């Protein structure tokens, strides 16, 4: 952990928790995560030769953007590059490329001067190699935490005599076995004066019993190290009392699993004629679907200009925020609710699937290019995975009178990435189906966050998953930003509820129920929650386009599992992440409204993003609408989730609803 080389860098992280291993270059090997994909005829996609305005920045473009800002602004050595990403062009320029306006190719940079603590935004015109905008961030605005800061935070803490003595009190001597997770500090309004105006982390720690051991089995309870990230020094070590280390190891790596089951014969997926998709640069075409694959440090995987059979469906889709609030009210734990996108960035924490990919068959990968804090290009090899999957039955019928029988198998195209956010791992999967369905699935796995229990103390806000090892209850929230374009930009949103009619003239026999659609006409009317008992869904309609039956074409947003926050309305996390309080928000498209918590949630006291914008109560009928869908699950840990958690899934689907005139998958050829 101490030797940081450009090729192999182990960076201590956080987010929902702890160590991100960033392995760069061929020297990076990890015996515990060899690829498991059978017959993965893998190849990387080269940077597009025919560049599209929505393409992520190439490595050369990142280098050029950094060099341009450095040169023009004469940046001091204390200036760090937080993120360097493509500045997506105006929608009009993408949708109407025939217009005379030349589409700009620009990079957007966030910078931070460690010496002054001041943040900056810059926009670089890449073709002209010039800075077109350079502005300081308002006072108090903290850019997200950089990966480099994870390592710097850990080093600072390990240098601190106060921290070492707190460890000693707990019988921890081997400093090199201590894992420090640089948790974001949040904003609680009760911070001591010395914290004010500083760029902070409130770091938590764990200890390994040997180098390959799972440190999360041994939380070093009660220590919170508050670190000034700009000065790279510990402000103070808060000690909430000694709790002995839990006694048992909890290892998942293959070296620790002494016997493995037998009886598994090979299950091979072969595509002898290759895959059915075609990739050109970042454009993907498959089974009447076409879309562009994007990537940025904050959201990771992004989908652009999604269409079916030449008809637009979604202009842009991404997971735009992710938050995991924990239930434990103890002093060391109540601030656990990292904003994994806004405070860190899941793109920054994307896995290189060279180290292991769970997919079978013929796979195409896309690399992702980022910058480190020094402005150097970091390439995550095979960050995005594209492959086809068999998806069971698509449709079937047997006419028992005539013995005619038809069945079609379903196939889906999966576009995915995996991010390791400290202890947790999140797989983000977008699936495209032949019947026009788009499904989003988040796979939650990895290691649960842990605390230690005092001997004899029951676990009140969690599950004891191993002796004296507590996995606190928590909620996983995701917000999908869906910039819809159902047959064009002018869309409206209706809510459909299936309800029983009261007894009376309309329901004389007691059996009647209806599916009534209610138009959501304004932003305030469109702040809605899911309701499984009324089979609630939302229909995104285009009133200007009718199907064969004369009704407006539409897609429906079908909720899956969803929850609402269990934090109290006045709790800091809900001041800062107000979007959690509704499952659905709808806004008229505004280019600047990208993230449900606003642009800079790190240490932000709150109020930004959706709750603020929607106060204007703008009209959302027959206009370019954006749906913001908050979904998630409350995680009550099981012993079986330890030491590594079997995948738990959560997500939603977008299904055509009168978009076609009948089942669009009738034309799938028989097997
Ligand atoms: Ni969980």
Compile the SSE list and pairings.
Blueprint lengths: L7 E5 L6 E5 L19 E3 L13 H15 L5 E9 L3 H5 L10 E8 L4 E8 L4 E7 L10 H13 L1 H9 L8 E4 L18 E8 L15 E6 L4 E7 L38 E3 L2 E4 L2 E8 L3 E9 L2 E13 L16 H5 L19 E8 L5 E23 L4 E18 L2 E10 L4 E9 L4 E2 L9 E5 L2 E4 L1 E11 L5 E11 L12 E8 L16 E10 L5 E8 L12 H5 L7 E5 L21 H4 L9 E13 L9 E12 L15
Parallel strand pairs: 3-17
Antiparallel strand pairs: 1-2, 4-5, 5-6, 6-7, 8-9, 9-10, 10-11, 12-13, 13-14, 14-15, 15-16, 16-25, 17-18, 18-19, 19-20, 20-21, 21-32, 22-24, 23-24, 25-31, 26-27, 26-28, 26-31, 28-29, 29-32, 30-31
Characterise this structure.
With 671 residues, this protein is mostly beta strands. It has a domain at 147-239: Nuclear Transport Factor 2, Chain: A (Roll). It is 8% helix and 39% strand. It contains seven helices and 32 strands. It has helices spanning 59-73, 91-95, 147-159, 161-169, 340-344, 572-576, 610-613, and strands at residues 8-12, 19-23, 43-45, 79-87, 106-113, 118-125, 130-136, 178-181, 200-207, 223-228, 233-239, 278-280, 283-286, 289-296, 300-308, 311-323, 364-371, 377-399, 404-421, 424-433, 438-446, 451-452, 462-466, 469-472, 474-484, 490-500, 513-520, 537-546, 552-559, 584-588, 623-635, 645-656. The strands form five sheets. The chain has a 19-stranded mixed β-sheet that branches. A four-stranded antiparallel β-sheet has the order 4-5-6-7, covered by helices on one side. Strands 8-9-10-11 form a four-stranded antiparallel β-sheet, with helices on one face. A hairpin with a 4-residue loop joins β5 (106-113) and β6 (118-125). It is globular, with a radius of gyration of 26 Å. The termini are far apart. Mean pLDDT is 92; it is low at 1-48. Bound molecules: nickel (II) ion (NI). Nickel (II) ion is lined by residues 444, 448, 474, 476, 635. Nickel (II) ion (NI) binds at residues 444, 448, 474, 476, 635.
């Amino acid at each position: 952990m101490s030797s940081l080389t450009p090729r192999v860098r182990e960076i201590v992280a956080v987010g929902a928790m702890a160590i991100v291993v960033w392995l760069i270059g061929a020297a990076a090997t990890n015996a515990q995560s060899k690829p498991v994909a059978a017959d993965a005829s893998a190849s990387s996609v080269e940077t597009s030769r025919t560049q599209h305005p929505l393409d992520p920045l190439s490595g050369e473009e990142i280098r050029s953007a950094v060099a341009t800002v450095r040169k023009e602004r004469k940046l001091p050595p204390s200036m760090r590059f937080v993120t360097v990403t493509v500045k997506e062009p105006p929608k009009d320029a993408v949708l109407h490329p025939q217009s005379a306006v030349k589409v700009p190719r620009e990079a957007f940079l966030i910078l931070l001067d460690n010496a002054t603590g001041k943040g900056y935004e810059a926009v670089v015109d890449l073709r002209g190699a010039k800075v077109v905008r350079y502005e300081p961030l308002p006072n108090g605005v903290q850019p997200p935490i950089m990966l480099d800061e994870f390592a710097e935070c850990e080093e600072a803490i390990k240098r601190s005599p106060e921290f070492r003595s707190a460890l000693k009190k707990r019988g921890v001597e081997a400093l090199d076995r201590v894992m420090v997770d640089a948790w974001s500090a949040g904003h609680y309004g009760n911070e001591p004066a010395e914290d004010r105006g500083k760029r902070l982390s409130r770091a938590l720690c764990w200890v390994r019993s040997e180098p390959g051991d799972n440190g999360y089995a041994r939380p070093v309870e009660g220590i919170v190290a508050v670190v000034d990230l700009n000065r790279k020094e510990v402000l103070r070590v808060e000690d909430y009392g000694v709790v002995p280390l839990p006694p048992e190891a909890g290892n998942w790596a293959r070296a620790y699993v002494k016997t493995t089951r037998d009886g598994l014969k090979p299950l091979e997926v072969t595509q002898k004629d290759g895959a059915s998709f075609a990739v050109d640069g970042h454009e993907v075409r498959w089974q009447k679907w076409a879309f562009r694959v994007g990537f940025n440090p904050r959201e990771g995987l992004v989908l652009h200009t999604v269409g079916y059979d030449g008809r637009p469906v979604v202009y842009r889709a991404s997971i735009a925020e992710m938050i995991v609030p924990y239930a434990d009210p103890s002093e060391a734990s109540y601030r656990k609710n990292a904003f994994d996108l806004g405070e860190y960035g899941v793109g920054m924490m994307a896995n290189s699937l060279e180290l292991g990919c769970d997919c079978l068959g013929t796979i195409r990968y896309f690399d992702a290019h980022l910058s480190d804090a020094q402005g150097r290009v970091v390439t995550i090899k095979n960050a995005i995975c594209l492959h086809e999957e068999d998806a069971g039955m698509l449709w079937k019928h047997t006419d028992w009178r005539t013995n005619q029988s038809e069945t079609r198998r379903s196939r889906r195209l999966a576009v995915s990435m995996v991010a390791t956010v400290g202890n947790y791992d999140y797989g983000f999967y977008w699936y495209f189906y032949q019947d026009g369905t788009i499904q989003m699935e988040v796979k939650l796995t990895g290691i649960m966050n842990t605390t230690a229990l005092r001997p004899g103390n029951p676990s009140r806000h969690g599950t004891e998953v191993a002796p004296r090892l507590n996995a606190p209850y928590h909620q996983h929230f995701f917000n999908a930003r869906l910039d819809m374009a159902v047959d064009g930009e002018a869309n409206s949103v209706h809510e459909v509820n299936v309800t029983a009619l009261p007894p009376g003239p309309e329901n004389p026999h007691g059996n009647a129920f209806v599916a009534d659609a209610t138009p959501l006409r304004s932003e305030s009317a469109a702040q809605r929650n899911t309701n499984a008992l009324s089979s609630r869904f939302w229909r995104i309609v285009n009133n200007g386009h009718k199907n064969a039956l004369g009704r407006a074409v539409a897609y429906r947003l079908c909720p899956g599992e969803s929850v609402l926050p269990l934090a109290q309305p006045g709790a800091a996390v809900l001041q800062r992440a107000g979007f959690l309080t509704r499952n659905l928000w709808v806004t008229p498209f505004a280019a600047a409204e990208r993230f449900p918590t606003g642009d800079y949630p790190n240490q932000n006291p709150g109020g930004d993003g959706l709750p603020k914008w929607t106060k204007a109560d703008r009209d959302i009928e027959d206009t370019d609408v954006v749906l913001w869908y908050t979904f998630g699950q409350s995680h009550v840990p099981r012993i079986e989730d330890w030491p590594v958690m079997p995948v738990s899934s959560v997500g939603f689907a977008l299904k055509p609803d009168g978009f076609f005139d009948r089942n669009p998958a009738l034309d799938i050829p028989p097997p």
